[in-house]
């Protein structure tokens, strides 16, 4: 363990072309870690606060850097993250910004791993980690807040649940992504890509279901293992709190109709994963849907839980959802993300470690997923900032990090 001797913070580009925070952490014995904050577009209302990067950097330089440099050992993640909380002094990182906090937290973890000469997943999860791998959920068609004039549902996901290895799973998702392009071309549907690299055609959700189901089935036949189908509905973005309805392009649904619609989709497409099917504050509706279909599929809370243990406790008490999305920047530190994963596991909830729609080449989440034995990781299917994580998973499996 060595003392942190320097922290440098800078603005770099994210995948949307927006500025984000990058942190370098240096230690007494020459350990080095670098990490960058991602950024959401369909953010949950209860997430930790992301500040404009230049303000977050200035505030972190003033409040956090003095509490860490010469004071805290890089390998002691709990102390690093406690110092970030103390420096911030709020309960939502609104002073130093969750973007500065998460960049420093992850960079310190990498510096700690560097000092030990261990891969990051092993530093975070211990020596017995690295044999089991998360199943990557690959976004192949998308709309919502991630693309204009595309589907209402935010993400249609390939889920290669039967893949014999993480590399097979990663290539299967890329093949589904390519098959979707072929099917769109056959139908003369022109399209570009959304923020996460998924195809963003101007089609309705019904046509997207047809195309993705066909693409999944074609690739499944080719590869010879089971590929499931999943969704991120991003229900909070569809929900209108004045009318208390979910607003789709072609119709509205009240909460009971929304629950019935999602339950039908689970049946019809044999969905293995459904994220945020309902509004982020409607624990009761989540509980009703989980009651109905929770034994057939994962009902995952993203905006519902925002990687926050208080919100997860509420969900556990009420039987809302059976899995949680883990986004370290939603809560601000790796320790907080770990706490959420541990609480979830103790209560039979699956954890799905996730990227954000605005990303960088940072691959920390691949290590986090392996370190915590998370059953799933959601990190897109193609595109450099997405393949940074997928290729890192392949390297971890190959013992090459
Ligand atoms: C990755 C997601 O999008 P964003 O980062 O925009 O919240 C999501 O909603 O799961
Ligand atoms: Mg989501």
TrEMBL record:
The protein, known as: Enolase
SUPFAM superfamilies, per the entry: Enolase C-terminal domain-like (SSF51604), Enolase N-terminal domain-like (SSF54826)
Family (UniProt): Belongs to the enolase family.
Subcellular location: Cytoplasm; Secreted; Cell surface
GO biological process annotation, one example: glycolytic process
InterPro entries associated with the record: Enolase (IPR000941), Enolase-like_C_sf (IPR036849), Enolase-like_N (IPR029017), Enolase_C (IPR020810), Enolase_CS (IPR020809), Enolase_N (IPR020811)
Cofactor note: Binds a second Mg(2+) ion via substrate during catalysis. Mg(2+) is required for catalysis and for stabilizing the dimer.
Binding site for Mg(2+): 232, 275, 302
Residue stretches spanning the membrane: none
Residues the record lists as binding (2R)-2-phosphoglycerate: 154, 327, 356-357, 378
Catalytic activity, reaction form: (2R)-2-phosphoglycerate = phosphoenolpyruvate + H2O
The keyword Iron is assigned to this record: no
E.C. no: 4.2.1.11
Enzyme type, top EC level: lyase
PROSITE patterns from the UniProt entry: ENOLASE
Record domain Enolase N-terminal: where: 4-124
Any one Gene Ontology cellular component term annotated for this protein: phosphopyruvate hydratase complex
Cofactor(s) essential for the protein: Mg(2+)
Active site per database record: 196, 327
NCBIfam families linked: eno
Keywords, alphabetical: Cytoplasm, Glycolysis, Lyase, Magnesium, Metal-binding, Secreted
Positions with a binding annotation for substrate: 146, 155, 275, 302, 354-357, 378
Region listing for Disordered, in residue ranges: 26-51
Domain Enolase C-terminal TIM barrel, residue spans: 130-400
Role, per record: Catalyzes the reversible conversion of 2-phosphoglycerate (2-PG) into phosphoenolpyruvate (PEP). It is essential for the degradation of carbohydrates via glycolysis.
Annotated metabolic or biological route of this protein: Carbohydrate degradation; glycolysis; pyruvate from D-glyceraldehyde 3-phosphate: step 4/5
């Amino acid at each position: 363990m060595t003392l942190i001797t320097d922290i440098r913070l800078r603005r770099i580009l994210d995948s949307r072309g927006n500025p984000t925070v990058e942190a370098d952490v240096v230690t007494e014995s020459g350990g080095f870690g670098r990490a960058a904050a991602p950024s959401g577009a369909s953010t949950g209302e209860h997430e930790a606060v992301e500040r404009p990067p230049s303000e977050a950097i200035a505030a972190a330089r003033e409040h956090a850097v003095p509490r860490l440099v010469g004071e805290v050992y890089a390998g002691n993640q709990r102390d690093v993250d406690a110092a970030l909380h103390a420096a911030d002094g709020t309960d939502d990182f609104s002073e130093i910004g969750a973007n500065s906090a998460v960049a420093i937290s992850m960079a310190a973890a990498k510096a700690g791993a560097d000092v030990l000469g261990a891969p990051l997943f092993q530093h975070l999860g211990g020596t017995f980690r690295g044999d089991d791998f998360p199943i990557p959920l690959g976004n192949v068609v998308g709309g919502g807040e991630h693309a204009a004039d595309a589907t209402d549902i935010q993400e249609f996901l390939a889920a290669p649940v039967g893949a014999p290895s993480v590399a097979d799973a990663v290539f299967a998702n890329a093949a589904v992504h390519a098959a979707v392009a072929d099917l769109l071309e056959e139908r003369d549907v022109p399209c570009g890509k959304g923020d996460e690299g998924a195809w963003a055609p101007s089609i309705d959700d019904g046509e997207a279901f047809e195309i993705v189901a066909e693409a999944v089935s074609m690739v499944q036949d080719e590869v010879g293992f089971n590929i499931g189908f999943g969704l991120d509905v991003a229900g909070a973005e569809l929900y209108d709190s004045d009318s208390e309805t979910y607003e789709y392009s072609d119709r509205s649904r009240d909460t009971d109709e929304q629950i019935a619609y999602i339950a039908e989709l689970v049946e019809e497409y044999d969905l293995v994963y459904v994220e945020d099917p309902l509004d982020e504050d409607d624990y009761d509706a989540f509980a009703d849907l989980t009651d109905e279909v929770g034994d057939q599929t994962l009902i995952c809370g993203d905006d519902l839980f925002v990687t926050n243990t208080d919100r997860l406790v509420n969900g556990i008490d009420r039987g809302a959802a059976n899995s949680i999305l883990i986004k370290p920047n939603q809560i601000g530190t790796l320790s907080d993300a770990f706490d959420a994963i541990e609480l979830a596991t103790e209560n039979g909830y699956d954890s799905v470690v996730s990227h954000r729609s605005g990303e960088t080449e940072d691959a920390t989440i691949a290590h986090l997923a392996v370190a915590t034995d998370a059953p799933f990781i959601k990190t897109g299917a193609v595109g450099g900032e997405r393949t940074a994580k997928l290729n890192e998973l392949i390297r971890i499996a190959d013992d090459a990090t």
